[in-house]
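Q&A log
Question type: sequence-to-structure
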Amino acid sequence: MKAKNLEILRAEGFPVPKFIVLSENEDLNLTFSEKDFFAVRSNFSSEDSEEYSFAGQFLTLLNVPKERIKDAVEEVFSSYAGCPEYKEKLCRDRTGQVKERMCEDREEADQSSHGQVETVLIQEMLFPEKSGVLFTKNPKGILSEMVVVLGQGLGDKVVEDQENVITYHYFPGECLYREGNAQDAELTEEELKNLFSLGERIEKLFQKPMDIEFAIEKGEIYILQAREITTLDKKSAIRILDNSNISESFPGICLPLSVSFAKEMYSGIFTSLGRRFLGKKVSSYEKIFQKMVGEFSGRMYYEISSWYDILRLLPFSRKIIPVWQAMLGVSNEEISFTKEKPGFFLKCRIALLFCYYFFTSQRKMKELDHFFKERYTTYLKRVEEEEEVKALYQLFLEMKEDLLREWDITLVNDMVSFISTKLYGKKTAFSLETMKPVRALSALKKVARERGIESEDYLKEKEKYISLYGDRIEGELKLETRTYRTNEELLDRWILESLQVEEEERISGETKPSGETKPSEEKKSLLYRLAESSCNNREISRLHRTRCFGLMRRIVDKIGEKTIGFDIYYLSLEELKEMLFTDKDFSLKIAKEKELRKAYEKLPVVSRVKLLGEVDRDPLAGAFSSAALGNNEERIFFGRGVSKGTLKGEVLKIKSLKEVSVTDAKGKILLSYSTDPGWFPYLDMAAGLITERGSLLSHSAILARELEKPAVVNIPNIMEELESGDIVEIDGDLGVCSLLKRKG
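Response status: OK
Response body:
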């Protein structure tokens, strides 16, 4: 496969060092090159197949002088007889089942699955200043990210963890960032640009995500190998996350409680909407309703494909989708669907219902307004009176179900406002409800300016403002956000700062527009009135939502006051329930989440990301050190997640393979300083892997990904911290290892 791909690249004009392919009984002829040194590489046809890419299982010799080429070739051919466990693996699929084209015995694995004779690749030797691997897709499943792992000198030192590396993370059109300390091996801006361009072209040529080994000699980039990334789980659903508009509601990093609540909130609302429009067909969309929003690197995103699937149900969806994109500020207008196009009769049913709700939505929004006003008053009293934590939690669930049950009609109203505003076309200032809190804040500022913030008049006006709009603040949908209602000093501080700015502007002669626009005086048409009404009702419903979130925040705060304080926001809803009703200790999990959130703050924001299944971005390796929780049985260690998956298990510490047998590794989480290709049979038997050295392209990572074992590498001093028999949990997505229990 190596030689085959290099032949294709060479034919297409890519910068590939000169090479020949030699069969076992073929005469050696080096006239293809004038070089004195060569690389003699294995070209075992199944080593890099369409299913597996076990780099390093067979011999590669570098820097071989011309006079030793024949001996080197024989050594490489001899290596094909080794590693019977690997050859056995080639006869089975990833589930362990014997392939359709079965191997009769282990010797048959020496032959290609296509019956080809095994060969050796002889390639001109380069003496590069820098070398590494470019992944056109992050092999963990982040499809919108390209990754470059770079080291100094020859690439063999990089994969063998003998060199410090720099890792470049590139989201095309979004951001580029780096990590690592190998200063001597930095890539220039031009080299990065050329590498990414080569990667895009090679991926397009092969029509597959590619793992590309490269070297840079005297400023020139050479492609040494190119093979398919075989570890991407093609059975997993492709997820497209987009933070357009939702970043306004959930700005910055969100804590787990807000994330889990948001997921349930969106799922519940859209399920109610589905029942309203789909009837019995709602069950076929349940999985979509559960994935309306998602999380990536601690931030909230729309699962944009799910939204497109729902919009596709509407009449004239081709016209509506661009309107929706414009209203939400979706910058990437690429449309993707996860479901087949809905049938004709279903579309007709929805069209009729949509017409009905389009014209009745304003009446229903007024009914919803009365419903929320009544419910808010009732629940406010109950929240303030209740003190028992379990009862408060049950009240939280009751409110969530009750208040969100009728919320789906607001989605219909949103669409009415989008469509009517678009159809009206003219730039018209509606007398929106939005201005009411603005006017109330202006009135409060006036009292503060004239009477001072210590005056009784100011205190009365502040109390009035907080009772109405105390939860309206940036990030108001994040339950952990501190609002004016939870901390009145925040409001006092804002008022004083605002008055100071006004005074500075007055002295300088600058004036600031009031921010209030006059409503249109033109004759109000039916379409105008519909647009005005739907926009106003939209703002009214948003205010109700803000207040309801304020109540739920108050409940969580009261529970926290009686249990673990603000740390409660680092738990999901399910974990909160478990803590209250089983007394489970989540201190280790909370400590991990705190450190992860700190790390995510350092990462650049990506507005749109494409993922394969449930996968997340690693924090920056080395961004923080291990965290202890005050006892010897609970510690958290951070490194590089290189093979996804979460696993709990027993540690087997290995300083040398001579100390253990293959059977010792069965079901254990292997711990070592580093690994090499000889670890294949041990890791094949093991459940997971932890190493002190390593990167995304090291042998540890390659083997773990191919064998589908969770793995965390590059954890400083982990060999000193853990012993055989310790119980740990590893997260191959986030690069986290948690010590749960010491041996004994």
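Response note: Residues 1-125 form one domain.
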